[in-house]
Queue: 2 jobs
Job 1
Amino acid sequence: MENGFFHHALTIREDICTGCSLCMRACPTEALRISDGKARLIEDRCVDCGECFRRCPVNAIIIEQDDFSRIFDYKHRVALVPAVLHGQFRHEVSMAEISTVLKSMGFTWVYEVEHGAEILKPAIEDIMNVRTLPRPLISTYCPAVVRLIQVKFPALIKNLATLKAPLEMAAFYCRRVLRDRGAHNAEIGVFYVTPCASKIAAVKSPVGEESTPITGVINMDFIYNRINRTLRNKGELPRSEDHEYTVDPDTLIWSLTNGEASCVDGRTLAIDGINNVTEFLEQLENEEITGVDYLELRACDEGCAGGVLLSSNRFLVAERLRNKARNLQPQDNTSATKDIPDISAYHGYLLNKVRITDEIKTRSMYRLSGDRDEAMRMMKRSRRLMCWLPGIDCGLCGAPSCQSLAEDIVRHRGDISSCVFIRETNMEKELMDRDRSAGIMKRIWGDNNFTKNCNKKGAENESN
């Protein structure tokens, strides 16, 4: 679903936004600008990493989810649950209890996403054996990283391992099992409990695919709070016969930093944190890093344990899951319900679906125009503008850097007079008066911000 459409899960509420610019400075792809005192999103640059969501001090950035009542549109309601949901609870809370609460909320089947990694292991091994593929191969597990490469490092798209995520493998499995048991596809709703915004975007507009087996997404903070409230009164819960976990120890921690890389042969590296990933990819693109076979890249610190929709400390979540994995015995890997076949029974069927079938296309933030000659002219103009701009990236123009302002100008999204240093120079040369300069600042930062300051100073003067 890449025909020019890219869904974004992040929404800026203008009625709350104060235009503080913290989100603009945090964005790794410079996808935010300040205009009229509000943050504005440049959609073709956004990778839905959620860094702006983390930094916003007034909660003006929200992450959408599907209406929970949608699950009742389906007779068979599957909750795909990642292990990091369980990792947020204290040790005495079992997966069986979490599963029971989810079923009391309306789901008919609760299935662990990490089962899908069992299909990924041999698929990664197969693709690693193809010596004609470039090295290092880059995991496609994290949608924010895939989009980051599309936007900022298009030359590395060829390095992406064209494999679907465990989430999709688990969804294909659940649908196939239910169909084999007599359910019609239209009766099956598969809902993913997501720890981050990028996975919402990946479900709504999958990269390299026309469709997805996942019906909808529900934010993890919403589910966590519902489970927490219910667990306070355990007496109301029916008894559950579900097992604690039905995955192997190594796949239980697949979503954590080094969880995937530790299962891949060869020289592998695991990098987490969007800024660390960006820095590493810059060095890789410049051929400063060689000899690596496989890269596990995660946009969040500690992998999915650091997802923006988790309510608990990421280090505690990672510690709990690793402790559970150490205490989990491989022989405990049995089906949660005796009458449902294990995912290994569908190994051949799922391996046929594991590859991303369509080309992963670039949507480079550096491409100034679709016309090559025009793009070259715009690039030259941008470089000339950089000779005039101060290069200190103060952000007072409403853009995160001088380079981004220059690109905005050649794209007709900005004006050189937005730069405070250019305006000061023009005022010294009497090419601009202070009223016009003040008007430009108000256009960027909003008239209300200036009015507030004036009123505050006026009140202070009166009190004196």
Note: The longest helix spans residues 372-388.
Job 2
Amino acid sequence: MDTSTKRRLFLGFLSNWVSKLAGTIVQLVQVPVFLHFWSVPLYGEWMIVTAVPSYLSFSSIGFGNVAGNEMTMMTARGDRDGALRVFQSCWWLITAICAVCILLFSVAIYFFPVSEYLKLHEMGPTDTKWIIFYLGCSVLLGQLEALLQSAYRCVGRYPYGSFIKSVFSLLAFTAMLIPVCLGGGARSVALAFAVANAVGTVVLCFMVKHDLPWIRYGWSHASMDEVRRLTVPAFAFMAFPIGNALNLQGTLLAVGYALGPAEVVVFGTARTVSRVALQMVQMVNSTFWPEMSSAYGANDIPLIRTLHRRACQMALVIAAAIIAAMMALGPWFLHRWTGGHVPPSRTLLSILLLVVVFYSLWATSSTLVAAINKHQKMAAWYLAGTSVTVVITYFAARAYGLNGAAASLLISELVMNLYVLPESLRLSHDTFRDFAASLFSYPASLRPATLLARLRRSRPQLES
């Protein structure tokens, strides 16, 4: 890797960390502020209502991700006209899909007694419908924002695009808190949030136009042939959120049917603690994703191979470090976190952490497959693996309790490793032997002997 690639990776990881930090700030600040100015029942109903528009996030399917991959690969080949064609085609397609979705959504919430169905008492029926409408518009605008960020991504400025998105998210959250602190109701809060998101989207449009003059809004380069070509990989992306739902909610339901709600609490909280490492692994994946698209577009096989190896190595190192900490502190944290209501089980936590190790390897390796729009078969494998896992989780829980349920989660991870690793090695022209050896190969400056020697040299200076 050259210096510019390393710099982009560093800035990409930093911007992803800022994005995660922004999400954490929102979660930490939101609860105490809302509960200070609102009653507990009102905030509870707000959480219920805000979950409804989130399903609109499936509206654009996966065209934003697919377009970003395609634009990055085309730009790496010097084909900016092709990248503009993809941008304009997906822009109008996503706009049309979102317009149809908001129309159908509006008709549905107008005629459907949402407040009665959700058993709301603090929010009136009319306010509930307007809140869902405002937040639904915000979700749909997010589909266009994903495409706008792809414009920055295709020219290697994805850290900047990610950072701008994080800033806009925090500003929209701040705009939402203002009416809360002024004593406003749920409807005014939802309106403030929607307006802030709309302004952010418009500003981002102008920023893209200013920073990337070759990106033009219009339809002169749009092509239905381009849309048809991207449709299959776009639909395939839908399998991943569906598979994630099966892996998370589906297995919890299986445990609930097999052992009852009390065991679901133990299983769910232990798995939440074990999945802390996955957040960092996902940051690694998001960082390397654009670089893999660019390297594949330029047909730079050695760089593809290096990026794949280093991404997997970094993910495993991070996962191993966090898992070691969880093994030492996890049971204590679980006991403190739940106020002693959930008994910590080191065996259960150990099995769930083993699941994380296997997940870290295939999930990071799969970044190469997904980054070049070759993920159709992988999506089918993931959906099949998670579906089978849900069924086996039920029977394993009945036969062996929570430990059996946790062990059953290894099935989908093993299935994905058996498919993803060979596929990624084929795309990167790598062999399993060399790939495995690369996972234990580190720069000389990071080897244990070098670090110990540096420590011995610095000790006399510290003592003096």
Note: The chain has 18 helices and no strands.
